[in-house]
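QA checklist item 7 of 12: single-chain prediction sanity check.
[x] sequence parsed
[x] length recorded as 269
[x] structure emitted
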Amino acid sequence: MINYDELRAKYQRLGIETPTFDMIKSEKDIEGIRKAGIVNNMVLDEVEKHIKAGMSTEEINTIVHNKTIELGGIPAPLNFEGYPKSVCTSINDAVCHGIPSKKDILKNGDIVNVDCTTIVDGYYADASRMFLIGECSEEAKRLVKTTKEALDLAVSNLKPYSRLRDIGYWIEKYVKSKGYSVVHEIGGHGVGNDFHEDPFIYHYGKKGTGMVLFPGMVFTIEPMVNQYGRGVFLDASNEWTVYTDDGGLSAQYEYTVLITEDGVEILAS
């Protein structure tokens, strides 16, 4: 049994920020989030079976909504702070929070991020995947591959008592080595008992800095990687969708992860 009071005291004596009590999940919480993650993965698997050129992003929304309900879950995005749909679908230069629409038809060569969050028995799990539609350019494929590799690299280096900014260090170092850039304004977040919790997860940073990571913490890592510059802007017409400043492509993958006593467990992907 971990004595969190002793752990906090130890790191606080060293001047290192420690997680608050509500950032540490109980065994019951973890099991609930794990179940939500299983459903979330099954929903994204269903999207993967059907996504193709010629379909609208509204059709993706219908697949996500119906499959989530069928599996006993609730689509968390629907009506969250006024968001009108059950999933986010972000195409090409859309960085995140693209709103599904009958007017947005997937075309050969598009890349699209499908970001899905599911509530099961009051617990949340959150993940997103990239999909390559038809024959994509080599550059689009390379960007998507690099984004997934950067996320996997960060996860492979995660361990209990490492530091929060290590996550961003590994991501940005790898992304820059491939000639791309990481969006700084949007990050990951704690998740499980609510949609968005503390801490904020940076996708850039200096190694060995930031909060110490304790076993029992659950959060998302979701780097957004741009083909060119890291600059972004918010679409004023819907106040949700974020785009690249320069019109370049953007890709994102997202996992929900649990810090364990000996490493990390991916709860949703």
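[x] summary fact logged: The mean pLDDT is 98.
[ ] second reviewer sign-off
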